[in-house]
């Protein structure tokens, strides 16, 4: 096999990955919708009653994005942890770069698109529920956050940009952890990340 990167092989590998795991992705999306709905019910609709603030949903979005995303990325190379699956994965006629790009597309890009779509769908249903309640209960209020003024604010743009860059960084770390650790990749990566930040804080404290 030619070791040069091939977009044709990459497209075939992406199709193969989708064909083998499309059912899993569908079920995972439904599970994500159910979990997201419960989070909205317990941590927004119930806790913020009767004064609802849309900025609370942004916290839900980013906490879930980082947490669920890191768990999903840590399973990207689970096949390497099992002998038979690992041999099958290594025998696929594609370069390591093509396999890595495929893993990045599914664990970062596809996950981000599906997670964001599910979030906004659940949020839309929750907002519609609040508006229905407001029509019959005057004490209920709803304060918007993601409006034109907020999105045009440079500070808000900077914060959202840094959070998205942080998401990409965390995803990359857990994707790397799924390659290096054959078992318990998520737990081991979390321990290493915590240890690294602890050493960083100690080093900064000693310097200053």
Task: Show the helix and strand layout.
Blueprint: H1 7-46, E1 51-53, H2 55-73, H3 83-91, H4 96-136, E2 141-143, H5 148-152, H6 154-180, H7 185-207
Parallel strand pairs: 1-2
Helix pairs in contact: 1-4, 2-4, 2-6, 4-6, 6-7
Can you walk through the features of this model?
79% of the residues lie in helices and 3% in strands. By secondary structure, it is mainly α. It has a two-stranded parallel ribbon. The N and C termini lie far apart (54 Å). The model has no long low-confidence stretch (mean pLDDT 86).
Name the features.
208 residues, mainly alpha, two-stranded parallel ribbon, 79% helix
Beta strand count:
2
- Mean pLDDT, to the nearest integer, reads 86
Strand order of the largest sheet: 1-2
Low-confidence segments, ≥5 residues, pLDDT <50? none
Q: Give the helix/strand class.
A: mainly alpha
| Run of helices and strands | HEHHHEHHH
Helix content: over 70%
- Largest beta sheet, briefly? 2 strands, parallel
Rg over alpha carbons: 21 Å
Q: CA-to-CA gap between the ends?
A: 54 Å
Q: Total helix count? A: 7
Q: Oligomerization state of this entry?
A: single chain
Principal-axis shape: globular
The percentage of residues in β strands lies in under 5%
């Amino acid at each position: 096999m030619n070791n040069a990167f091939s977009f044709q092989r990459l497209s075939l590998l992406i199709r193969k990955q989708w064909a083998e795991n499309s059912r899993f992705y569908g079920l995972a999306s439904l599970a994500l919708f159910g979990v997201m709905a419960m989070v909205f019910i317990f941590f927004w609709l119930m806790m913020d009653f009767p004064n609802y603030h849309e900025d609370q949903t942004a916290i839900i979005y980013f906490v879930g994005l980082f947490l669920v995303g890191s768990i999903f990325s840590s399973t990207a190379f689970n096949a390497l942890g099992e002998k038979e699956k690992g041999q099958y994965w290594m025998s696929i006629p594609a370069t390591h770069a093509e396999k890595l790009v495929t893993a990045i597309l599914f664990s970062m890009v596809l996950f981000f698109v599906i997670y964001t779509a599910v979030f906004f769908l659940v949020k839309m249903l929750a907002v519609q529920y609040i508006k229905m309640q407001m029509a019959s209960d005057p004490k209920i209020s709803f304060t918007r956050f993601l409006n034109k003024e907020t999105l045009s604010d440079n500070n808000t743009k900077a914060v959202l940009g840094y959070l998205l860059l942080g998401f990409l960084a965390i995803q990359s770390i857990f994707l790397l952890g799924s390659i290096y650790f054959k078992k318990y990749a998520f737990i081991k990566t979390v321990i290493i990340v915590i240890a690294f930040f602890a050493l960083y804080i100690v080093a900064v404290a000693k310097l200053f």
